[in-house]
Amino acid sequence: MPTPSELSALMFHADPMGTCCRENDAFDEYDRIAFELAERLEEGEISDVALHAVLSEWFDDDLVERADLAGVIEALESVSTRTGESP
User: Fold this and answer.
1) What residues does each domain of the chain span?
2) pLDDT tens per residue, range 6-23
3) How many other CB atoms are found less than 10 A from the CB of residue 53?
4) I need a labelling partner for 44 at 20 to 30 A (CA). Which of 59, 73, 83, 84 fits?
């Protein structure tokens, strides 16, 4: 299972919500989101469902629906596969 730290780094680099965290060196931009996402994944939620749910708690639903989350979901599934877990 990916750790909150791994998830935060993944989202920092992908910046799915377009917060400009990379440009501003805001390395902790997605820390709280990553923590909640890790909890949901640990509870067995599917990657894309968990990601959408957590982002919707932090951002407007319309923003989440317009965000390109495919790369983040793919990376989540890749990290989960490397650790031997189901995404």
Assistant:
1) 4-82
2) 999 999 999 999 999 999
3) 14
4) 59
